[in-house]
Structure formats: structure tokens, C-alpha cells
Amino acid sequence: MFATAAIRPKQNTLSGRFWHSDPVLGDGFDRMKKILLAGLIATGFMTATPALAALQCGNDSSGFARWVEEFKRVAPSNGVNPSVVEKAFSSVSYNRPTISADRGQKSFKLSFDDFMKKRGGAAIISRGKGMKSGNASLFAQIERRFGVPAGPIIAIWGMETGFGSFMGDQHTLSAVATLAYDCRRSAYFTEQLYAALELVGRGDLSVTARGAAHGEIGQTQFLPLNVVRYGADGDGDGHIDMVRSRADALASTANFLKGHGWRAGAGYQPGQPNFVAIQGWNAATVYQQAIAYMGAQIDGQ
Question: Which residues cross the membrane (predicted)?
Fold first, then answer.
């Protein structure tokens, strides 16, 4: 998988991407929690918190079925259509691979050169240049709309899923529901679960969708609440399809960066104004540096 568990957590507001008390995060954890809180207030998801506070979390599968029934009972009182709840949970089960991936997260520090080798940076740059030229009109449209050039978007696309070649194999709703039930970060992933239900309700997430182990969706691996907040319709069909629509996934990625302070025309290397937006994508410094470097190479800077 291109977005390895060792590099996560990512998307430091809500895609990217979640947090835990890992040394790799540093001060970004507290800073991004404030951004998440503001987003939840803005989208109305904070209404879910009081009613869900009483749900009994668990650290194994034994209480999951009971938790699901209780969640299904309280979700409509938090604004979710009961039919959407039933539809979404029709194929949800406790997802052991998600828990295994979550428990297996480890911080590590690689040099920039080692990281680039490990993640196939040279191949991403080479193929990324072809992606830029082959989708020139799309990237021009995205830059006009969001002010973000092709390079960093393509670098993220390549880093996350190998340009859409592997977007994950875990049932998305099961992954998010499992982590909402799990005691370690129940509140955070409960908010993600409500966002996933919103996407199901508006037809932007299939109940059979598969993605990464923590519920990340699509070609650039957005967590559900990031899709709600930053998802952009890039192909004009009225929906945001992060899996099948290249235009939607890339436009949403640009909108995420714009939402994290991207300024049209400014530089995005370390120390330049737009590097802060790249920092919003992933909390690992070496990951940020790689996006900036590969983006510049793809953009011919």
C-alpha cells in the first residue's frame, strides 16, 4: 500500500487524512485539533457528541454488536435519516485488520534520501510528469479554480495510491465504525462515522466501498469528514466521487490545500508561504518535504 501505516496519521484536520499520541506528530496535534473543532461546529457535527458520549466503547469485538445497535438507535436523533443508518450498517462488521493496523502504528524517522527511496520518489516524479502533460487541461482548470499548481497535487496522488492504482481493500464503513467503537479514539472516529453517513445519504459513498484501514477514501485518501469539508465536484456531475472520478479527487485535494492556507502564486518549499498547507496534509516532516520536492520537480521548478 502506498500510504503506509508507519507514515500515518495524516490529513491533520480531519483525509489525510487522524491523530494519535505519536512523537512524529509534535505540536501539530494540538494545532490541528483546533481546526477540527472549528470544522465540526461549522458543519453541525458537534451535535452528535453529547448523545454519543454514553455509548460503551470496547477494546475487542465482544461488545461491537451491542454498540452498533445503540448507535443505530441514537443516530437519527442526531439528524441521520433512519433509512440511511439501516442501509449503511447492513454490511458493517468488526474489522480486525483495521485494529491490527491501528495498533501497529509506529513512529520512525528516515532521512529524506531514505524516505524517497522507500517510497519510490524518482518513479513518482517520472510518472507524475506524464500525468501532468496527459491531464494538462484538468490541472489548468484546477489551478484557475483553487490556485494550486499541478506538482504538489500530483505528488500527493502518487504518494497516496500510486496514481489510483491501489486505494485500499478494507470495507470503509466497517473500518470507521470499528474505530468509532474502539476506546482509543472513539470520539474522533465517531465524528468520522457521522461524516461517512452523510456521504452515504447524499450518494457520494457506496455502502460497499473499500479503502484504507482507517477509512480513508479514494485516489488521494481522504477521511470522510475531509470529504464533507473539502470535497469538490471536479467533473461537474453533481457528486463527489473520490474513487472513480480523477477530476473529483484531484480538485478535492487542491481544495484541501486551499483550505489550509494555500495562496495562489506563492512558493511551496520549506520556509515559503504555501508549505504550511502541505503541513496540513501530513504531520510527518519528511513526508511534507517529499511532497514539496517532488511537486517542484514535476512542475519543472
Answer: 35-55
Amino acid identity, position 39: G
Contacts of 215 (CB under 8 A, 6+ apart): 98, 172, 173, 175, 176, 179, 189, 192, 196, 223, 224
In a domain, 9, yes or no: no
How far apart CA 293 and CA 291 sit, in angstroms, is: 6
Q: Give the global pTM.
A: 0.82
For residue 25 the three cell numbers come to 506528530
Residues in the chain: 301
* Grid cell of 278 as nine digits: 502541505
Summarize pLDDT for 130-164 with one digit per residue, the tens.
Answer: 999 999 999 999 999 999 999 999 999 999 999 99
Q: CB 255: neighbour CB atoms within 10 A? A: 21
DSSP secondary-structure letter at 64? Answer: H
Shortest CA distance to 180 belongs to which of 74, 35, 39?
74
How far apart CA 11 and CA 32 sit, in angstroms, is 9
pLDDT of residue 105: 73
- CA–CA separation, 295 vs 128, rounded Å? 9
The angle subtended at Cα 159 by Cα 158 and Cα 161, nearest 5°, is 70
> How many other C-beta atoms can be found within 10 angstroms of the C-beta atom of residue 91?
11
Classify residue 10: in a domain, yes or no.
Answer: no
Domain count, the chain: 1
Residue 25 has a CB neighbour count (10 Å cut-off) of 18
Considering the domain boundaries, does residue 191 fall inside one? yes
| Spatial contact of 217 and 173, defined as CB atoms under 8 Å apart | no
Range of the domain at 281: 28-299
Which bin fits 209, alpha (ψ -120 to 50), beta or left (φ > 0)?
Answer: beta
Q: Rounded distance, CA 277 to CA 256, Å?
A: 8
Closest C-alpha to 222, from 161, 146, 142 = 161
Q: Is the pLDDT of residue 27 over 70?
A: no
* 2 found inside a domain: no
